[in-house]
Amino acid sequence: MSSNSLNRFRVRPAEPRDCTEILRLIKELAAFENMPNAVKVTETDLLRDGFGSRPFFQCLIAEANKDDAMQETDIVGFAMYYYTYDPWIGKLLYLEDFYVMDEYRGWGIGTELLKRLSQATIETNCSCMHFLVVVWNKPSIEYYMRRGASDLSTEEGWHLFRFDKENLVRMASGD
Amino acid sequence: MECVIREATVEDCENLMSLIHEIADFHHLLEDVTINSQVLKADGFGKDPFFKCLLAEQPVENGCKPARPIGHALYFFGYNVNHGRMVYLENLYVVAEFRGKGIGKQLLSKVAEIALEAGCVEMKFVTMEWNRPAKEFYIRLGAHDTTDSEDLHCMVLDQDALQRLRQHGKEKISR
């Protein structure tokens, strides 16, 4: 675990009990991106896919201390990631989602989450961290560029494609 | 053209590395390949595999050893925070003299089948903007270019940026 000097928040690995709150933050981020109906995953999905016998993702949680003597905490940010592979350079860390609630920005939570992600990337011998941004999200692009990120789509012509489930079904049947 | 699609094994790593070199050469990026067959063995066939791979081979007579593979599909599982389990197709390659014979489609069909069995709802992959034959191949099969349609850009934080973030969590540009 790690926290800032004022003890206002701490970052820790997510646990199964956090799935309700993780889903809340996922929905908040989707709403912020003007896609409130995009979220199809459920708490059951998150529990099975993140904390079952075959995890598909890992998650860091940021907790803020409440201003009362009981020292309860609120989950105010998260980062979801998993490991990927580039056959030219080897293991990579892929950052799937990264979000801090609006009212908790400026506390250094994002910085601490990125620090922990960078540690995980280096300590697992991954070459680099990949992620996606929507190019019109200027604050987000600037946030990452200030920290040394490069845009591979612009600089090297990478285009990300997607096959939806119906395409997968058609291809799997050999059509 | 008839071919046999099978899962790669640790014994295939030298041949697989050779196909990976061919893809890099096709992209004029051979100098970017920094791993070798030993790394592939450790990363794909050890205790904690980071990728899966299918090989395409020509059918052989009984008792004869198959020739070198004529294509491969390298993939791994990931997570879409809104939709759930997904598969990422990192490499799809067919040796030049065997292209145009339906082998790529057979490999893709098998990956789609495996992905659906694993509960995946989508497949993602990257193609270079200049690679028109590849883009047309995928679009004909129903893929969407999400860099074009949704302004999604692929970003990277390299080793230098990660080291800075790990140590200081600070921005590249000092204030």
Automatic annotation (TrEMBL), chain A:
<dbReference type="GO" id="GO:0032918">
    <property type="term" value="P:spermidine acetylation"/>
</dbReference>
<dbReference type="InterPro" id="IPR016181">
    <property type="entry name" value="Acyl_CoA_acyltransferase"/>
</dbReference>
<dbReference type="GO" id="GO:0004145">
    <property type="term" value="F:diamine N-acetyltransferase activity"/>
</dbReference>
<dbReference type="Pfam" id="PF00583">
    <property type="entry name" value="Acetyltransf_1"/>
</dbReference>
<keyword id="KW-0808">Transferase</keyword>
<dbReference type="GO" id="GO:0019809">
    <property type="term" value="F:spermidine binding"/>
</dbReference>
<protein>
    <submittedName>
        <fullName>Spermine N(1)-acetyltransferase 1</fullName>
    </submittedName>
</protein>
<feature type="domain" description="N-acetyltransferase">
    <location>
        <begin position="55"/>
        <end position="148"/>
    </location>
</feature>
<comment type="similarity">
    <text>Belongs to the acetyltransferase family.</text>
</comment>
<dbReference type="InterPro" id="IPR051016">
    <property type="entry name" value="Diverse_Substrate_AcTransf"/>
</dbReference>
<keyword id="KW-0012">Acyltransferase</keyword>
<dbReference type="InterPro" id="IPR000182">
    <property type="entry name" value="GNAT_dom"/>
</dbReference>
Automatic annotation (TrEMBL), chain B:
<keyword id="KW-0012">Acyltransferase</keyword>
<dbReference type="InterPro" id="IPR016181">
    <property type="entry name" value="Acyl_CoA_acyltransferase"/>
</dbReference>
<dbReference type="InterPro" id="IPR000182">
    <property type="entry name" value="GNAT_dom"/>
</dbReference>
<dbReference type="GO" id="GO:0008080">
    <property type="term" value="F:N-acetyltransferase activity"/>
</dbReference>
<keyword id="KW-0808">Transferase</keyword>
<dbReference type="Pfam" id="PF00583">
    <property type="entry name" value="Acetyltransf_1"/>
</dbReference>
<feature type="domain" description="N-acetyltransferase">
    <location>
        <begin position="3"/>
        <end position="160"/>
    </location>
</feature>
<comment type="similarity">
    <text>Belongs to the acetyltransferase family.</text>
</comment>
<protein>
    <submittedName>
        <fullName>Diamine acetyltransferase 2-like</fullName>
    </submittedName>
</protein>
<dbReference type="InterPro" id="IPR051016">
    <property type="entry name" value="Diverse_Substrate_AcTransf"/>
</dbReference>
